[in-house]
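User: Quick one: structure for sequence A, then sequence B.

Assistant: Sequence A:
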Amino acid sequence: MQESPEKRSRQRFDEQFKKEAVEMMTQSKKTLRQASRELGVNENNLRNWAEKYSPKASSENGQSTQELQAENRRLRKELAERSEEVAILKKATAFFAIHGKG
């Protein structure tokens, strides 16, 4: 049996609603479950929004946790590339020290 399109459609919430939902939850000191029931949203959605939009999810310079994690991944990749370059240069230096320039 197939479900009707109405049952499968997903609710879409704009960014402003998500931010206000997180703010309401944190200011009212309600549990995640209580807040999600009052707002009529899935608990997992509200949890994800809280991770993204809560004041605690921002660093001192205003970056969100997700932005910081993305930057961290980028920097780790760049560090690995630089470490590989240094290792190659060390090998080349050792080779030329042993074999000379010509």
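Sequence B:
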Amino acid sequence: MSTKGQVVIPKSVRDQLNLKEGDKLVAFTRRDLIVLRKIESEESILSILSQSVRERIKNLDITKEDIREAISTARTGT
């Protein structure tokens, strides 16, 4: 990793995944891993990110009612 936090994806991996200059990637973590995933559209990035949020909510045992209450509190400012 460079001093700017940049990393190089090896050519063999780029070729295997058909990655080209200008392709968009999203980075996220899974435990102690950094995962890079190619995104095809803006809609797919929202889908990818929401998967992570859904998993975190499930792991924290947050219910739909908890979410409704948090939204209500945020809207009223109380």
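Residues 11-76 form one domain. Residues 57 and 67 are 10 Å apart (CA to CA).

User: Thanks, that's what I needed.
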